[in-house]
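thoughts on both lines:
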Amino acid sequence: MSNTVDTRTLTWCASVFVATLTIAATATHFLHENYITPLKTIEKDNEIKQLHGKLAEMSQDISENHRLTQALADAKLKLSLIEHSQLFFKGDPYPTTITVTRLGQNADEIYKNHSGQQIKEARNEKDITNVTVDIENSLFDKIRYNFENESKKIISIALQIDPFDDIEESFLLNSITRALGRPVKGTIEGQFRWALPEGGNLYLFHERLMLIVTEGRVPRVWADADE
């Protein structure tokens, strides 16, 4: 008798347990179907929308970057055309497309005229200071000034063309000649000199370096061919 009761009790308990599991499984399935899965779907939708938004922003940034790159290229081309068509005004030894502080001016003007550009200063002699300015987006890539420490007057200006820039043969020689007239040749091939209307001289060395100096100063490597 007790064995029979115990067996029935166990059977009932087992039935209750199975029923409980079934209910739990059904409830879990119900939760997944009606709450958890939709919530996950909403989260995924939100993530997808956010990704689409980020992709749209990146696309706009890329388009803007391309536009600015093209605008810069166009500006460089226009500047190049200007430089190659009229690099100097008649009678003026200073390039028209960049700001150059002139001979005889106070050295303080260098820092005013080239504000925001990379400037390096060094004393190469006891009484002379050298200032180098890096130039961007121009035929010339550097300007070197020398000025007297006591008077602070600029006594020489060197303008250098980028050695890797592809320019026409004799381009700078022809450009200066149109502005200043026929030059005096130096004893070394590729060297030329022009006397300036306001005093001083302009020297050209091998089509890449032009040097403007005050009256009475002569580069060590220079000698007139007729001397």
About this structure: Strands lie at 119-122, 128-134, 140-148, 154-161, 184-185, 191-195, 201-205, 209-213.
